[in-house]
Amino acid sequence: MDLITMNNLTNEESISLLEDAKKLVPVAEGSVHLPLLQGKVLANLFFENSTRTRLSFETAMKRLGGEVLNLSEVGSSVKKGETLYDTMQMIDGYADVAAIRHPKQGAAQYAADAVNIPILNAGDGAGNHPTQTLLDLFTIRQGQGKIEGLNVLLVGDLRYGRTVHSLSHALGRFGASLTLVSPNSLKMPEEIVSDLKSMGCDVQESDNLSSSLESSDVVYMTRIQRERFPDEAEYEKVAGIYKLSKENLSSVRSGMMIMHPLPRVNEIHSSIDSTQYAWYFKQAFNGVPTRMALLCRSLGVDVPEVIG
């Protein structure tokens, strides 16, 4: 099973993966040994910088007894001019499944079309990041007990942010109400907003963060991505435009969750880290059980009902 966008999964399949992830939490924590993927090999193909995604994929595979091959542009034949197609042909013979992150939108689908092994999109340019979406949904469900019908605030770089592109579609399918907060230059692409509205999703757009905090169940912060801007001057105009500190939370809902795909720069002050609202570090850990569930599903391995 490939996962290139969230459209590759029905709502029922997404929930099934989240249920598997819940069962795998003790394995992700290291308290239970469950070598479901012993003898299997994951290729981690990261042509763009990554910390959490790459390491959580590697941790997930190793906790399940599998092995990992790591490839980056630096130190590989990509630096010699090898095409993505040729690289994928090699990987097809070395691994059972591959996770790929690439700066070009559409690269994950291209890779999937080139090989027979399952391909998991770990981020393609400003396109999609479906494995991040799965761990985000898992975290929201963990904190709110459900995904359906929530008020979710998506904040920051909505134009280039692949995490919010994937997540907005998924939340829309589950009936969430979305408020999109960004400067005008970083608004959610019109085609995505149009898609959300066509599926019946309640979508509001704003440039004001504070006015929407009180009614939100989830606040999903993102950093302004310097690396996506073709013009440094345009980046400087919006850098640091949205910041959350403890003082901003005096009238928010008691169960409100603050999430962030990380890395953060200055969008969330460290004073929030010790509050009940901070979910971003739990969110980062949740990449392990959700990617465990996805690896098992991609390789046709069932997760047992009772673990530990």
Please outline what is shown here.
The protein is of the alpha/beta class and 308 residues long. Helix content is 36%, strand content 15%.
What does this structure look like?
The chain folds into two domains: 6-128 and 285-298, Rossmann fold; 130-283, Rossmann fold (3-Layer(aba) Sandwich). Helices cover 36% and strands 15% of the residues. It contains ten helices and nine strands. The strands form two sheets. Strands 7-6-5-8-9 form a five-stranded parallel β-sheet. Strands 2-1-3-4 form a four-stranded parallel β-sheet, with helices on both faces. Strand 3, helix 4 and strand 4 form a beta-alpha-beta unit. Helix 1 (11-29) packs across helix 5 (130-144). The chain is globular and about 55 Å long.
SSE layout:
Elements: H1 11-29, E1 41-46, H2 52-63, E2 67-72, H3 84-94, E3 97-102, H4 107-114, E4 119-124, H5 130-144, E5 151-155, H6 162-173, E6 177-181, H7 190-198, E7 203-206, E8 218-221, H8 232-238, E9 257-259, H9 280-285, H10 287-298
Parallel strand pairs: 1-2, 1-3, 3-4, 5-6, 5-8, 6-7, 8-9
Helix pairs in contact: 1-5, 1-10, 2-10, 3-4, 5-6, 5-10
Number of domains: 2
CATH H level, superfamily name of the largest domain: Aspartate/ornithine carbamoyltransferase
In spatial order, strands of the major sheet run 7-6-5-8-9
Annotated CATH architecture of the largest domain: 3-Layer(aba) Sandwich
Helix segment count? 10
CATH C-level name of the largest domain: Alpha Beta
Give the H and E element order: HEHEHEHEHEHEHEEHEHH
Average predicted confidence as pLDDT: 90
CATH fold naming of the largest domain: Rossmann fold
Radius of gyration: 19 Å
Structural class: alpha/beta
How would you sum up the major sheet?
5 strands, parallel
List the uncertain runs: none
Provide the helix percentage: 25-40%
Which band does the percent of strand residues land in? 5-15%
Spatial shape: globular
